[in-house]
Specification:
Layout: E1 7-11, H1 22-30, E2 34-36, H2 56-69, E3 75-80, H3 84-93, E4 98-104, H4 115-119, H5 125-136, E5 141-142, H6 158-167, E6 171-172, H7 173-177, E7 191-197, H8 205-213, E8 218-223, H9 229-232, H10 234-242, H11 251-254, H12 279-293, H13 299-303
Parallel strand pairs: 1-2, 1-3, 3-4, 4-7, 7-8
Antiparallel strand pairs: 5-6
Helix pairs in contact: 1-10, 2-3
């Protein structure tokens, strides 16, 4: 009897939807994988379901419901950006169904922290999220668009940028601001990988990857890409997922203390050039400067100066 097809569940980050994984999902399916690219409640084609009640727990439940409804096991669960706490929360609920976790330049708050807590305030980004929601989102949703646009997410190709900007939708502030509830069960998952996209110069990026590089329970890689490699470098994301494919007799699946698999991309050279901070980090700093000087009343105009 043939082995069951490997399974990948790919979870999008803030303002995105399942659409952003198209260039990753197709090659994985061609390689024989079952691939799920759910859109979280209130985003993309599910935008009509966005209400003030939608928060982090809603999005965690989205993934838990998918795993249960489809009876998925030995899953490679991948989260991009703001989906970090979403996949951690789902894995904590159903650890026996997850073979590997892959964090793609994602937030990694600890129990009781929100994504905004994790990011810290050194670049003013949490305050920017809240200010955008207050001024343009009735206090509870963060609108897509400048500075949370394709350029802000590291997509520079004109055609790709037009595609991305045409798809982005508002994100619930609570999903960023709610604390992550964990029991610690997710830490029993045998393989955990983190990919840092170094062109996205966010304040928490280097401290996080530095900490994980010192932790033998984690496999880490540094890529010279922008924040959205599932769009700009999909072949690398595909390779990273393939490297985590669990086999029926894979001892890592049975032994939570097994060493994470090594991706063939781990030794790839990485440029150490200093990129510019992401657009929304620069915007947050400018907004703070404008507020201190009393210049301007419209936040968006201050952000884009």
């Amino acid at each position: 009897m043939s082995s069951p097809a490997p399974v990948a569940v790919l979870v999008h980050g803030g303002f995105h939807g399942g659409w952003c994984w198209a260039r990753v999902a197709a090659p994985l399916r061609a390689a024989g994988w079952r691939v799920y690219t759910p859109t979280l409640t209130g985003l993309a084609e599910r935008a009509p379901s966005l209400t003030p009640a939608v928060g982090l727990a809603t999005h965690v439940q989205d993934i838990v419901d998918l795993l249960r409804a489809e009876n998925l096991h030995n899953v490679v669960l991948c989260g991009h950006s703001a989906a970090g706490p979403v996949i951690t929360g789902a894995a904590d609920r159903l650890p026996a169904q997850i073979a590997a976790l892959l964090y793609l330049d994602a937030s990694l708050p600890q129990a009781g922290e929100s994504m905004l807590d994790f990011m810290g305030d050194s670049q003013g980004v949490p305050a920017l999220f809240r200010a955008q929601a207050a001024e343009f989102g009735d206090g509870w949703r963060v609108p897509a668009g400048l500075p949370f646009d394709a350029a802000g997410f590291g997509v520079s190709d004109a055609a790709d940028a037009a595609w991305v900007n045409g798809q982005l939708t508002a994100h619930p502030l609570a999903a960023f601001a709610d604390p992550l509830v964990l029991t610690g069960a997710w830490e029993t998952i045998p393989r955990r990988s983190y990919i840092r996209c170094e062109q996205f110069q966010i304040a928490h990026g280097e401290p996080l990857i530095g900490r994980l590089e010192r932790d033998p329970r984690w496999h880490t890689e540094r890529w010279d890409t922008g924040h959205s490699p599932q769009i700009t470098a999909p072949a690398r994301v595909v390779a990273a997922i393939l490297a985590l494919q669990p086999a029926p007799a894979d001892p890592a699946v049975k032994n939570p203390r097994a060493t994470p698999a090594t991706s063939p991309l781990a030794a790839a050279p990485v440029s150490r050039r200093e990129p510019s901070p992401p657009r929304f980090a620069r915007a947050a700093w400018r907004a703070g400067r404008g507020a201190k000087s009393g210049a301007g009343n419209g936040l968006l105009h201050r952000l884009m100066c």
